[in-house]
């Protein structure tokens, strides 16, 4: 999965008003807003993925921000995209069910139809599905039969635990682990998620999604393990809305699982950010459940919160999480991706130059290791 760049910041003069709006409080447009703050706000809201949500909140509150008309256009576009997306998702789930392929709808699409008032309030560029690893070949054969196309992967099988498919503008990321990183990918095994799954009838009779507690842990994992503590607001809104749907018992079970899987630090960080932007008050935080901080120490997953880490440090952490034989396999696959992948990546280069391409790719990869993850 490609890293999502940090979205542009909310203009400083508008941060208090936006927080108030997202908290459900009065949020007049500030008089001190600069002339270019309108355009900067629109870009930021779009990149943060919350433009339709902000439009809905402004309309419900009767607020007359000068960006209202532009936000309305974004909301209409999101509604139109959602209408087209839903039909394709339903047809694909029917096909999976007919083939006996077990599947969970994870992340944006499942949440859009479960915890959001309307699915178009949760924009997204693709639909994420989770399957059992043993169903990979059956899934791939079905997707190709249905006319979806997919690019070859790099062959890094221990770090690329998903495959993308597209057809007529519809994009699916099909995963067989909840994250690519071996540090945390065993935190939520597919069979356990499936046993606790809930139905999402607004999508389809065949639609299943992780329980709210599991979806919350996945949301916390996703924003740090894949996106290095990126503070994109729509991901924080997911976390907030899930928490508001959970009972006291579900919160307790969530924190027990977080402690067992050594994920307390990253979950606490994600929840703190979500409360800052979306909640009027704080509740069910780590400190409410853990009095002995010994349980919170030495969590390997906490390294994901260090945005100054280099890619070499990330690779080192991934390798440490693997057995020795798997480490050697990972390094071999990194150094020598399949020839078909190289030809696809460099279609205009003569095949005779393939050895030189491997060398060039290796040098480029080594240089990238010195870059920070947040760059």
Description:
By secondary structure, the chain is of the alpha+beta class. 51% of the residues lie in helices and 7% in strands. A 4-stranded mixed beta sheet has the order 1-2-4-3. The chain is globular, with a radius of gyration of 22 Å.
Topology:
Layout (H helix, E strand, L loop, with lengths): L11 H12 L13 H12 L2 H11 L6 H32 L3 E4 L1 H5 L14 E5 L4 H10 L16 E6 L2 E6 L14 H6 L2 E2 L8 E2 L2 H15 L6 H13 L2 H13 L3 H15 L7 H4 L21 H10 L3 H12 L3 H7 L8 H15 L7
Parallel strand pairs: 2-4
Antiparallel strand pairs: 1-2, 3-4, 5-6
Helix pairs in contact: 3-4, 8-9, 8-10, 8-11, 9-11
Give the mean pLDDT. Answer: 91
Query: Any idea what the radius of gyration is?
Result: 22 Å
**Assembly of the depicted chains:** single chain
In helices, the fraction of residues equals 40-55%
SSE series:
HHHHEHEHEEHEEHHHHHHHHH
Strand ordering within the main sheet: 1-2-4-3
Q: Low-confidence stretches at least 5 residues in length (pLDDT < 50)?
A: none
The helix-and-strand class reads alpha+beta
Q: Kindly, what is the distance between the CA atoms of the first and last residues, rounded to a whole number of angstroms?
A: 16 Å
For the sheet with most strands, the description reads: 4 strands, mixed
Instruction: List how many beta strands DSSP finds.
Output: 6
Report the principal-axis shape. Answer: globular
Number of helices: 16
Q: Beta-strand level of the residues, as a percent range?
A: 5-15%
């Amino acid at each position: 999965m490609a890293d999502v760049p940090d979205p542009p910041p909310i203009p400083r003069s508008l941060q208090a008003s936006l927080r108030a709006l997202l908290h459900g409080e009065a949020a007049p447009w500030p008089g001190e807003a600069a002339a270019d703050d309108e355009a900067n706000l629109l870009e930021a809201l779009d990149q943060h993925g919350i433009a339709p949500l902000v439009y809905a909140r402004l309309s419900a509150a009767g607020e007359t921000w000068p960006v209202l008309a532009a936000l309305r256009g974004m909301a209409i576009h999101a509604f139109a995209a959602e209408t087209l997306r839903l039909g394709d998702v339903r047809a694909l789930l029917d096909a999976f069910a007919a083939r006996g392929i077990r599947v969970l709808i994870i992340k944006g699409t499942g949440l859009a139809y479960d915890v959001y008032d309307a699915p178009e309030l949760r924009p997204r560029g693709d639909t994420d599905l989770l399957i059992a690893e043993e169903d990979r070949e059956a899934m791939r054969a079905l997707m190709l039969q249905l006319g979806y196309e997919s690019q070859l992967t790099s062959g890094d099988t221990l770090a690329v635990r998903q495959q993308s498919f597209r057809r007529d503008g519809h994009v699916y990321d099909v995963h067989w682990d909840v994250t690519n990183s071996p540090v945390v990918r065993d935190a939520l095994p597919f069979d356990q998620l499936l046993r606790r799954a809930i139905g999402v009838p607004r999508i389809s009779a065949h639609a299943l999604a992780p329980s709210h507690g599991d979806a919350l842990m996945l949301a916390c994992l996703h924003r740090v393990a894949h996106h290095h503590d990126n503070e994109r607001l729509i991901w924080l809104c997911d976390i907030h809305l899930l928490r508001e749907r959970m009972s006291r018992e579900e919160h307790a079970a969530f924190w027990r699982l977080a402690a067992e899987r050594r994920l307390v630090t990253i979950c606490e960080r994600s929840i703190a950010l979500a409360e800052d932007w979306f909640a009027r008050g704080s509740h069910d935080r780590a400190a409410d459940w853990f009095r002995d901080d010994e349980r919170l120490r030495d969590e390997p997953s906490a390294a994901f919160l260090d945005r100054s880490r280099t890619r070499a440090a990330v690779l080192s952490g991934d390798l440490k999480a693997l057995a020795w034989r798997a480490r050697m396999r990972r390094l071999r696959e990194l150094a020598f991706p399949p020839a078909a992948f190289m030809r696809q990546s460099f279609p205009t280069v003569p095949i005779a130059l393939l050895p030189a391409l491997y060398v060039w790719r290796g040098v480029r990869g080594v240089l990238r290791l010195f870059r920070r993850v947040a760059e």
